[in-house]
Design the sequence.
């Protein structure tokens, strides 16, 4: 059962044909009550895009992959505790890994808070919203969430959002809306805070901004969001590109059209054009840019 869930999860690598993600191998697995740790390996050619331990959780009788716990043998304790895994359960999971001779390294250090200053909420015309085990309308429903509920978003993928709270699962992105505040001053403060996120949180911040521009930002708030899109393109291009890659062509086109219309910052335009010129294999974002660039 867990092997099937893991294979289904890692067939979805943004920007890659599922057939290219080979080979996918499942190593050690430890299960304690409604939690599991599983070691997974996979790559695209010589590039190891999947390598390390992952946390799974069982909800309403169905297993779902929550997130990576680190790279290679790393297991970051903070990523387990933020999902409510108790110390006792964690210890028993490690006992299970040791019992099968698994190799792992514990990192018991704090990680940066992943809460974004802008809030993603359900905005479903026909609530409650289904939470599914996979990002497709054919995926089994593992629960429902009432309208207006704030969501903790882990990642977007082709029109779906993987959420961590209040349930772990997938919801349609078009049934959500991002709010960065009720006044222009509040919106500006929250967008400024997004801009300060670093490393892996920078990608989450860029994604939040993309989704705000796609469904949420209006009027002067949209102008502020467009200005911050330009700042990301200038100062954190890689994070912005990765965030856009995970969305559908429709989302990328709408966001680009929205930021191009009032006139992009010359350096932002130059960064997109330079990336397009220097890449032998264009990303989905750069292909969309090539079709729409000013």
Sequence:
């Amino acid at each position: 059962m867990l092997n099937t869930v893991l294979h289904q999860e890692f067939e979805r690598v943004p920007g890659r044909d599922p057939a290219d993600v080979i080979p996918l191998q499942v190593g050690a697995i430890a299960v304690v009550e409604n939690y599991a740790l599983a070691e997974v390996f996979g790559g695209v050619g010589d590039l190891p895009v999947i390598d390390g331990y992952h946390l799974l959780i069982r909800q309403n009788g169905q297993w779902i992959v929550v997130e990576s716990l680190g790279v290679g043998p790393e297991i970051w304790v903070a990523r387990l505790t933020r999902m409510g895994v108790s110390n006792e359960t964690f210890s028993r999971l490690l006992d299970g890994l040791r019992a099968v001779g698994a190799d792992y390294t514990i990192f018991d250090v704090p990680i940066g808070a992943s809460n974004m200053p802008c809030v993603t909420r359900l905005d479903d015309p026909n609530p409650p919203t289904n939470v599914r085990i996979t990002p497709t309308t054919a995926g089994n429903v593992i629960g429902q969430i009432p309208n207006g509920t704030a969501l903790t978003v882990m990642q977007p993928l082709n029109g779906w959002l993987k959420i961590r709270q209040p349930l772990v699962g997938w919801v349609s992105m078009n049934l959500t809306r991002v709010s960065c505040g009720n006044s222009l001053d509040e919106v500006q403060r929250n967008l400024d805070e997004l801009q300060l996120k670093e490393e892996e949180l920078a990608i989450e911040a860029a994604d939040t901004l993309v989704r705000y521009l796609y469904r949420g930002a209006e009027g002067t708030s949209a102008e502020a969001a467009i200005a911050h899109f330009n700042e990301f393109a200038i100062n954190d291009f890689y994070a912005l590109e990765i965030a856009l890659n995970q969305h559908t062509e429709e989302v990328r086109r709408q966001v680009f059209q929205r930021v191009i219309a009032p006139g992009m910052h010359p350096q932002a335009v130059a960064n997109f054009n330079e990336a397009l010129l220097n890449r032998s294999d264009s990303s989905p974002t750069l292909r969309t840019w090539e079709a729409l660039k000013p």
